[in-house]
Design brief:
alpha/beta, Aspartate Aminotransferase, domain 2, Aspartate Aminotransferase, domain 1, 2 domains, seven-stranded mixed beta sheet, four-stranded antiparallel beta sheet, 13 strands, 13% strand, globular
């Protein structure tokens, strides 16, 4: 059965099948493509944060479950309203959090992956997709210097850094406590994890989820560059051993989310080796900065890690979700996750490639084809162009720091090590608490103003305006304009 769409004049199927006619497919694809193309062109001119409030979107669009299909025109108009009420990561003056714009080729690659709708549980489930993901894993390892001739890298794509970090910590726990699976996580000696006091929240959260407990994450004080103090790390581990605890993992940061500080990875690797601990690196934000030749010395020791997390959806400019976990020891990873009890997913193939299953290396069974957008991005632009873009982000952050230091009404609180700059607006005569309050109000005013977007961090007890630059659209002119926007906001509050 079919009916004529009164708005478009197109024939529309009304039977039980969800297949579309050739005409319907053409109309759908052309109009959606036009909408996406318009959006990519319009992003720089849109408000970074919309003039919206809680409930506005559903009030405009409605929230009633449709019992009958609606015209495509209505749907697209509502999609435009969703765009209007969204925060735009792709805006050149969006500096909040660690959120990059999606590059156009990757966005269209995601459409291909969604249309294919392959479930990458294993090679048998998605032959081509599995091979592409394993190729992408090798590429990512190579890009950050984790792929070495005598130390091959293995891995899998995840929803993001939090899932990658949790997966790594469970691998580490099982590797250092082989009987945990049989006895249970709570029946062994208290086990401890070590990380800097600047570590991402996903590490203590992961410790909680795997049963170790947040209290068993030892936070090592950072130095004046906000990097882990390795001497204190060694002392803390030795003390815990004397007190009957069982250290099993140390986590280093390859770019903290607060300031972008990179821990002394090579020195931490020495300590991990000395005490026979699993060495994990949280590089969700910063690991891909190893593509910037001027920053490579910061990442010395990264190749010595047992596992590394990184997020292509942060600094490879691909759409969410696209996290990654790399690891060295395939056998130990498999020991943590392999499960032979489900007959319906039992692999009968004998060929090594065809017998491969991602479920043996992580917690997910159903998995999206995340690799295609990364594969398309690297093939379309090439690694060298991506490297230049990352390098430019770092240079723009350095430019922001220079402008802040040169200004009387700003104070630099943390110099950029990568592409994050933390600073504050200052007014003579104000106490520290008053400066914190002023900058909190300034940040809120800037965010709601829609012309720029900053987040915040606490740097040695001080409230900081935080600008994270992982955006191929951001220029030095955007930095200059943002500083003026901050000044205007501050004056508007007086």
């Amino acid at each position: 059965m079919s009916e004529i769409n009164p708005r478009s004049g197109q024939t529309r199927s009304t039977n039980a099948s969800l297949d579309l006619s050739a005409a319907e497919l053409h109309e759908l694809s052309s109009q959606v493509t036009q909408l996406v193309t318009e959006y990519f062109s319009a992003v720089p001119g849109l408000p970074v944060f919309p003039n919206t409030w809680g409930g506005k979107t559903t009030a405009e669009i409605g929230a009633s479950l449709p019992l009958a299909g609606e015209p495509l025109e209505t749907l697209l108009n509502d999609c435009r309203l969703i765009i209007e009420n969204s925060r735009h990561n792709g805006h050149p003056r969006f500096f909040g959090y660690v959120a990059s714009p999606a590059n156009a080729p990757a966005a269209f690659a995601d459409l291909i992956a969604s249309a294919l709708n392959t479930n990458l549980t294993s090679w048998r489930s998605g032959p081509a997709g599995t091979e592409i993901e394993r190729t992408v894993i090798n590429w990512l390892a190579s890009l950050i210097g984790y792929s070495m001739n005598d130390l091959p890298a293995h891995g899998l794509l995840t929803s993001g850094g939090s899932m990658a970090n949790m997966t790594a910590l469970l691998m580490a726990h099982r590797a250092k406590s082989p009987d945990a699976a049989a006895k249970g996580l709570w029946n062994s000696a208290p086990m401890t994890i070590y990380a800097s006091d600047q570590i991402h929240m996903s590490i203590p959260k992961a410790a909680d989820m795997i049963g170790v407990g947040r209290a068993q994450v030892r936070l090592i004080p950072s130095d004046n560059r906000l990097r882990m103090q390795v001497g204190l790390l060694r002392e803390t581990i030795a003390s815990d051993l004397e007190n009957g605890l069982k250290p099993f993992c140390v986590v280093g940061s390859a770019g903290t989310v607060n300031t972008g500080a990179v821990d002394p990875l090579d020195e931490i690797a020495d300590v991990a080796h000395e005490f026979e601990l699993w060495f994990h690196i949280d590089g969700a934000y910063g690991a891909l900065a190893a593509l910037d030749e001027t920053k490579r010395p910061l990442f010395r020791g990264l190749a010595r890690a047992d596992s590394v997390s990184l997020d292509p959806h942060k600094w490879l400019y691909v759409p969410i979700d696209a996290g990654c976990l790399l690891f060295r020891d395939e056998a130990r990873a498999r020991a943590a996750f392999a499960f032979e009890g489900a007959d319906y997913i039992k692999v009968h193939e004998q060929n090594e490639t065809e017998a491969f299953a991602f479920w043996n290396y992580g917690p997910e069974l159903s998995r999206r084809f995340r690799a295609l957008k990364i594969w398309v991005t690297l093939r379309y632009y090439g690694a060298q162009r991506i490297a230049r873009t990352i390098s430019e982000d770092n240079l723009v952050a350095a430019y922001l720091a220079e402008q802040v230091k040169a200004a009387r009404d700003f104070e630099l609180l943390a110099a950029p090590e990568l592409s994050i700059c933390c600073f504050r607006y200052v007014t003579p005569g104000l106490a520290e608490t008053e400066l914190d309050q002023l900058n909190t109000r300034v940040m809120n005013a800037v965010q709601r103003g829609g012309r720029a977007y900053l987040s915040n961090a606490t740097i040695q007890g001080k409230f900081a305006l935080r600008a994270c630059i992982t955006n191929f659209r951001t220029t030095r002119a955007d930095i200059d304009e943002t500083l003026e926007i901050i000044r205007e906001a501050a004056k508007g509050l007086s």
